[in-house]
Amino acid sequence: MELTLLTVPGCPGAVMFQERLAAALADRPGAVLHHREVADEPEAVQAGMHGSPTLLIDGVDPLAGPQARPSLSCRLYRDPAERTSAAPSVQALRRALAEAGGDLAKPGA
């Protein structure tokens, strides 16, 4: 399972996202997270970025809705109570990782 965090330079939500993702990955010590800064709209489209920050799991954004379009914009996430935040909750990240399956502790998984 490959994890990539896509952000734009100076993304205000990047630190919060990284902290929450670290908490979601706490029980997966072998997880490797790649960070990629996206500079322009064509690169955002090519990378599958749906706003900054975006987490890709094996190249797919599990937190994007079916109508989401690639974007270089800042991204807001909604919780079940419809509150917005610059990052998904730890629980939402854990769900996304579990649904993606695989064992992050094994190289090449």
Can you characterise this structure?
This protein has 109 residues and is an alpha/beta fold. The chain has a single domain, classed as Glutaredoxin, CATH 3.40.30. Helices cover 27% and strands 23% of the residues. It has helices at 14-24, 41-47, 90-100; strands spanning 3-7, 33-37, 50-52, 54-57, 71-74, 77-78, 84-85. The chain has a 3-stranded mixed β-sheet, with no helix packed on it. Strands 3-5 form a two-stranded parallel sheet. The model is unreliable at 104-109 (pLDDT under 50).
Briefly, what is this?
It contains 3 helices and 7 strands; from the N terminus they run βαβαβββββα. The protein is α/β, with parallel strands linked by helices and about 110 residues long. The radius of gyration is 13 Å and the shape is globular.
Radius of gyration: 13 Å
The major β-sheet equals:
3 strands, mixed
General form: globular
Domain module tally:
1
Question: What is the helix content?
Answer: 25-40%
> How far is the first residue's CA from the last residue's CA?
5 Å
Strand content: 15-25%
* Helix and strand element order: EHEHEEEEEH
Structural class of the helices, strands and pairings?
A: alpha/beta
Query: Using DSSP, what is the number of strands?
Result: 7
Integer average pLDDT: 90
Topology:
Elements (H helix, E strand, L loop, with lengths): L2 E5 L6 H11 L8 E5 L3 H7 L2 E3 L1 E4 L13 E4 L2 E2 L5 E2 L4 H11 L9
Parallel strand pairs: 1-2, 3-5
Antiparallel strand pairs: 1-4, 6-7
